[in-house]
Write a structure and sequence with these properties.
alpha+beta; UDP-n-acetylglucosamine1-carboxyvinyl-transferase, Chain; 14 helices; 23 strands; binds uridine-diphosphate-N-acetylglucosamine
């Protein structure tokens, strides 16, 4: 298992480009099952989670070819409707295969997914939406058996705008007779990307990006070619890295509107930002001022996935920053690693108070989850001395060769 060795304290200077969005490409890869044909997907990032999704597609019976950042999936012969536990537990988003398989193969036998390092992650909203659309679902000891009954569109009201439940409902509804409306749908950019992909294969889906998504199911689908949007959380992580280390950094291939809540904070703490097309350049002072208040919310609110890197930044800001985590109940696991480096953080329930310190000190720390691992990395880059970050496999789930990107910005990070 890899470790990242970081010699901290270097200012950053350079340019980095953001890869395709993990949270877009995973549901899109699952959705390739639905057209029983060929889907060519561009801008696929090289991530552990993408490898896990490709393994599932191959297991189901799809032919998958990877050429650089293009993945081609031929789902004509997809027939194996049982995904084994060891594949499901590799990543939480494997649950999206449930809706895609139900739509494309009329059956899905899966297990409750893995990747639950952020606290309780129930899938009750997914299951009740799929049942309402006509799926027969039987749960037994972590196994979930879904079979398509008479699949008919209808209004689905989500009690919470869950990203995964919205995606599963969209995928299933594409195969339902008639009209489905998803009310209180998640509004994340990745939902819009999934809609655009489904439309590109002939499905009739509209409204993504707003709270009501409308799907007219049962349309004839065809082969497609599609390009995934850039990863807004990677972009946010690079901006936080620039702000905590200081210096001048350009982040390319960003859709600036997707990270407005992040850039407005970076701007408010004294960094100067310039946005031109898909490029964001940031010039950062020696020590930015504190962040005041960050509350994570469903999009367009501040993204929970950017909370850990932003907290790493807050540890060195001048003053006290306050975080309220409203999406996941176990999303402060990076705090103990940051504290070992000398950060002053107090957590009470879902609130964290971060009192900025002048200096962090490098030390051995363990990545406990994907974004928490990225937070430890950028803190280590800004710390005095050497850090060793173990369990890098968590970081590799969502950042392609992160050490190369950070080295391109002038950081000293090696993988051993
Ligand atoms: C997705 C993202 C993840 C991001 C999260 C919130 C992917 C692959 N992952 O995760 O990176 O952090 O959105 O933006 O896209 N909930 C229920 N019941 C359900 C479903 C969810 O109670 O059936 C709760 C969850 O426990 C959590 C909240 O709803 O507290 C948000 O979860 P959700 O939006 O579903 O996140 P994911 O789709 O799992």
């Amino acid at each position: 298992m890899s470790t990242l060795i970081v010699n901290g304290g270097r200012k950053l200077d350079g340019r980095v480009s953001v890869h395709g969005s993990k949270n877009s490409v995973l549901p899109i890869l699952a959705a390739t099952i639905i057209n029983s044909g060929t889907s060519v997907i561009h801008n696929c990032p090289k991530l552990r989670d993408v490898d896990a999704a490709i393994d599932i597609l191959k297991y189901i019976g799809c032919r998958v070819f990877v050429d650089g950042d293009t993945v081609t999936v031929d789902s004509k012969n997809a027939a194996n409707f049982e995904i084994p536990y060891n594949m499901m537990r590799e990543m939480r988003s494997s649950v999206i295969f449930m809706g895609a398989m139900l739509a494309g193969m009329r059956k899905a036998h899966v297990f409750t997914p893995g990747g639950c390092e952020l606290g309780a992650r129930p899938i009750d909203l997914h299951l009740s939406a799929l049942r309402a659309l006509g799926a027969h679902i039987h749960e037994e000891g972590g196994k979930i058996k879904c079979e398509a009954g008479r699949m008919r569109g209808r209004d689905i009201v989500l009690a919470f705008p869950s990203v995964g439940a919205t995606e599963n409902t969209m995928l299933t509804a594409v195969a339902c007779e008639g009209k489905t409306r998803i009310i209180n749908a998640a509004r994340e950019p990745e939902i819009e990307d999934l809609q655009n992909f489904l439309v590109s294969m002939g499905a009739e889906v509209s409204g993504a990006g707003s709270s009501t998504i409308v799907i007219y199911g049962g349309k004839k689908l065809h082969d497609t070619e599609y390009e995934v949007i850039p990863d807004r959380i990677c972009a946010a992580t690079f901006l936080c890295a620039a702000a905590i280390c200081g210096g001048n950094v350009s982040v390319g291939n960003v859709i600036p509107e997707h990270i407005e809540t992040v850039t407005s904070i970076i701007d408010s703490i004294g960094c100067s930002l310039s946005i031109k097309g898909r490029d964001i350049t940031v010039r950062c002072p020696e020590r930015p001022s504190a962040i005041r208040l960050v509350r994570t919310m469903p999009y367009p609110g501040f993204p929970t996935d950017a909370q850990p890197p932003l907290m790493a930044l807050a540890t060195k800001c001048n003053g006290t920053s306050m975080f309220v985590e409203n999406i996941f109940d176990g999303r402060y696991r990076h705090v103990s690693g940051l504290s070992r480096m000398g950060a002053d953080i107090k957590v009470e329930g879902n609130v964290a108070m971060v009192c900025g310190v002048k200096t962090l000190f490098g030390c051995p720390v363990e990545a406990t989850d994907l974004r928490g691992g990225a937070a430890l990395l950028i803190a280590a880059m800004a710390a005095e001395g050497k850090s060793e970050i173990s369990k890098v496999c968590h970081i590799d789930r969502g950042y392609a060769a992160i050490e190369k990107s950070m080295c391109a910005l002038g950081a000293d990070v090696k993988r051993v």
